[in-house]
């Protein structure tokens, strides 16, 4: 058992991760706020690594929920690699676009790792990004035309949407799903297509981050048991969250999340200013 994150803490953090990973509210921001409330050092490298690792549980939920789609994309990709006759299929191209669109995120993560684990992990940054991200989501909703379904996604769309994930990596509180969905809406995609694209982009990015950070979590102050517990809980809660979100976006805007984010951001500023939480 860890002397930094207990099993009870891991359960709570797993629930928070599962609930917030795919909603446009910032799972990283909510994890950091929860860690602060639990008196867990938010900038401890092993705690940062723990947050990245338990995201793999949420990704496992996406893999299960979208299993048929992923098998279809993977099958088209392998067929295209083996036979050039299949390389004009949209599914083959889409698989490559997800790969290429993830590369900017990888580059930013490697180049700015020290900043991400250090100053940018501050709760002051989280509070600011929650509010700034709300403005971005609100603007995207205002400008959205929703005229393009998933079948019309292009390489240009994938690069823009994939690159937008870097905002959430640099500024916890911005929200990876919020950035990707909002960027998709600005590009004219409908809400369901935008949300599904955000889910698909989460797979390589978050899986890679979890694997990369695993050694820091295990070799640091966290321990294996809390990691397993947090990941399993994250998976269970995230699966329900994915199903709910897809039903929600079919009929509702994201304006409710905008209001929620602003409230949480202001509350966090107040708690930090009053000394209840420490950045």
Describe this structure in words.
By secondary structure, the protein is mostly helical. The chain has one domain. The chain is 76% helix and 0% strand. It has twelve helices and no strands. It has helices spanning 7-20, 27-37, 45-65, 67-82, 90-111, 113-117, 123-143, 155-170, 176-186, 191-219, 224-249, 255-274. It is globular and about 60 Å long. The two termini are 26 Å apart. 48% of the residues are buried.
What does this entry show, briefly?
The chain has about 280 residues and is mainly alpha-helical. The protein is built from twelve helices and no strands.
Order of helices and strands: HHHHHHHHHHHH
Total beta strands: 0
Largest sheet: none
- Terminal CA distance reads 26 Å
Residue share in helices?
Answer: over 70%
Q: Please indicate the percent range of residues in DSSP E strands (runs of 2 or more).
A: under 5%
Unreliable residue stretches: none
Radius of gyration: 18 Å
Shape: globular
- Please work out how many helical segments DSSP would assign: 12
Mean pLDDT score: 90
Number of domains: 1
Content-based structural category? mainly alpha
Label this structure with key terms.
single chain; 279 residues; mainly alpha; 12 helices
Topology:
Layout: H1 7-20, H2 27-37, H3 45-65, H4 67-82, H5 90-111, H6 113-117, H7 123-143, H8 155-170, H9 176-186, H10 191-219, H11 224-249, H12 255-274
């Amino acid at each position: 058992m860890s002397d930094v994150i207990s099993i009870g803490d891991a359960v709570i953090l797993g629930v928070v991760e599962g609930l917030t990973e795919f909603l446009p509210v910032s799972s990283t921001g909510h994890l950091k706020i929860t860690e602060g409330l639990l008196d867990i050092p938010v900038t401890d490298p092993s705690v940062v690594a723990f947050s990245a690792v338990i995201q793999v549980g949420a990704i496992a939920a996406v893999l299960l929920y979208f299993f048929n789609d992923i098998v279809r994309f993977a099958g088209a990709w392998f067929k295209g690699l083996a036979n050039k006759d299949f390389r004009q299929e949209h599914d083959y191209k889409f698989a490559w676009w997800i790969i290429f669109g993830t590369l900017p995120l990888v580059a930013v993560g490697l180049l700015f790792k020290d900043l991400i684990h250090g100053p940018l992990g501050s709760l002051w940054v989280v509070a600011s990004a929650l509010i700034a991200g709300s403005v971005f989501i609100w603007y995207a909703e205002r400008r959205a035309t929703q005229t393009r379904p998933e079948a019309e996604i292009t390489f240009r769309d994938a690069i823009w949407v994939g690159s937008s994930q870097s905002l959430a990596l640099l500024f916890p509180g911005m929200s990876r799903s919020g950035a990707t969905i909002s960027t998709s809406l600005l590009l004219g995609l409908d809400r369901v297509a935008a949300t599904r694209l955000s889910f698909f982009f989460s797979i390589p990015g978050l899986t890679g981050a979890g694997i990369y950070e695993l050694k820091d979590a295990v070799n640091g102050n966290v321990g294996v048991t809390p990691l397993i517990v947090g990941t399993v809980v994250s998976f269970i809660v995230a699966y329900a969250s994915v199903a709910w979100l897809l039903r929600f976006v079919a009929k509702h805007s994201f304006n409710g999340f905008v209001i929620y984010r602003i409230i949480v951001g202001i509350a966090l500023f107040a708690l930090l200013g009053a000394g209840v939480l420490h950045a």
